[in-house]
Design a protein that fits this description.
Radius of gyration: 15 Å
Largest sheet: 6 strands, antiparallel
Shape: globular
CATH class: Mainly Beta
Distance between the termini: 26 Å
CATH architecture: Sandwich
Strand content: 35-45%
CATH topology: Jelly Rolls
CATH superfamily: Jelly Rolls
Mean pLDDT: 90
Helix content: 10-25%
Number of domains: 1
Length: about 140
């Protein structure tokens, strides 16, 4: 259920709050999206279970992404190179850049994501459905 906010109102969420989407061994929690940001950006947490793959290599034609390591180590494919993103690591992925992420460790890993401009959350119901219909796949 979507709700409209006054874009000038502060938005405060406690840990774990937001719109949660289960994608197999990956969970996304949207903190702010087009409803709260007037489609300017979306902010989400992405959590990966130990030794699990992410969304698969992809690119966004018109959207930049920023990731920030929250917990554990998440491996990111950026172009043709894999880099490890640990807690406190910042990474910016420009539009039209192939990227992916995965957790190759034995501990849970999480990253904070800024998607600019917003609107990515519109894809989440279809992504969740795909993971439900393709268990064990990415």
């Amino acid at each position: 259920m979507k709700h409209k906010n006054n874009f000038s109102d502060p938005l405060i969420l406690s840990p774990g709050q937001g719109r949660s989407y289960n994608c197999g061994t990956m969970t996304a929690i949207f903190k702010a999206d087009e409803n709260e940001t007037n489609e300017k950006y979306s902010v989400s947490e992405w959590w990966l279970e130990p030794n699990s793959e992410g969304p698969g290599a992809h690119q966004h034609e018109e959207n930049d992404e920023v990731f920030y390591g929250l917990e554990g180590t998440t491996s990111f494919l950026v172009g043709d190179k894999w880099v490890d993103v640990k807690k406190g690591t910042f990474i910016r992925i420009p539009a039209k850049t192939i990227h992916d992420f995965a957790n190759n460790t034995n501990e849970k890993a999480g990253v904070l994501n800024f998607f600019i401009p917003g609107g990515f959350e519109r894809n989440m119901p279809a992504i969740v459905k795909w993971f439900e219909e393709n268990p064990g796949s990415k």
